[in-house]
Every structure is written in structure tokens, then in C-alpha cells.
Amino acid sequence: MKDLIILSGDSNQDLVDKVNKATNESYTKEFTTSDSVLQLLGLCLLLIIILIAAYYTTKFVGRYKLGQLRNSNIQVIEAYRISPNKIIQIVKIANKYLVLGIGKDNISYITELDESEVITHENSEVEKQSFRQIFERIKGKKE
Fold first, then answer.
1. 3-state SS, residue 122
2. Strand-strand pairing, 107-113 and 86-93
3. Backbone angles phi, psi at 86, to 5 degrees
4. Would you call 5 exposed, middle or buried from its count of C-beta atoms within 10 A (0-12, 13-18, 19+)?
């Protein structure tokens, strides 16, 4: 059996009135314009912090991966897309040049090339340009 609690001295209407009053008091906090502006500024500051953290994390990971690629024995010399899911690549592994067919679910060995048969493009160091220089160059082409 369930327990029955009897409140002495309070009628049902008094109890309902007390509960309603307590509920209204807890939800009646009004937000002022200054509260809203402070919340907006806080969210903007949080967004800026997240963007700065993402920028520096991306730079760190990019530098780390670039260092791994430079010291690697595997290098993709050239890639040519045949269809959306099929690519032919010339890959240098140690001192051998391999031609590979890469599909959606498999990689196929096609042939091995001699070093004299492969035309390599030297990776020249690209001069670092600021955003302004790149923007001005692009803007000049449109005129």
C-alpha cells in the first residue's frame, strides 16, 4: 500500500497557492539589456578564442606533417585522375619509381620505371607573400 501524507493546518487551496508562488518566484528573473549585451560579448570572446586555437593547432599539425613528408622514403611524383574513383600515380619509394593504379577499394601495381624515364619537377621554394600581395595580384588580373 502507498503511504498517505496528511498535512495538518493547510487546506488544498493554501498548498496550491504556496507551490504556485514558489514557482513564480523562481522563474520571474528578468534579463536586462546589459545582461544580454554581456552574454553576447562573452560568446563573441569565446568564439574568437576558439578560432585562434584552431588556427594555431592547424599550423602546428601542418608543420609536423610537412616535416614527416620531407624525411619520408615515399614520395608521390605525379598523380592523374582518370575518373572520380580511379587515379594513376607515379610514386618514388626509396630509389625506385613505381606506377600504381589506385581505385576505390584497391591499389594495383602497373609497372616500374627507370629514373631516366621519369621527368621530375623541382620543387622550388615559393616566395612567401602576404595576403595583401596576393589580393592585389588577383585584383590586377580582373581589371
1. coil
2. unpaired
3. -135, 130
4. exposed
Average pLDDT of span 126-141: 80
Task: At 71, give phi and psi (nearest 5°).
Answer: -95, 15
Say whether pTM exceeds 0.70. Answer: no
Average confidence (pLDDT) over 64-92? 86
Alpha carbon 134 to its chain centroid, in Å, reads 24
d(CA 56, CA 50): 10
φ/ψ region of 47 (left if φ > 0, alpha if ψ in -120 to 50, else beta) reads alpha
Cα–Cα distance for residue pair 135/131, rounded to 1 Å: 6
Q: What are the domain boundaries of the chain? A: 38-72, 74-117
* Mean of the per-residue pLDDT values of the chain: 81
Least confident window among 4-8, 18-22, 70-74, 137-141: 4-8
Closest CA to 119 of 90, 95, 96: 90
H or E stretch at 125: none
Burial of 75 (C-beta count, 10 Å sphere; 0-12/13-18/19+) = middle
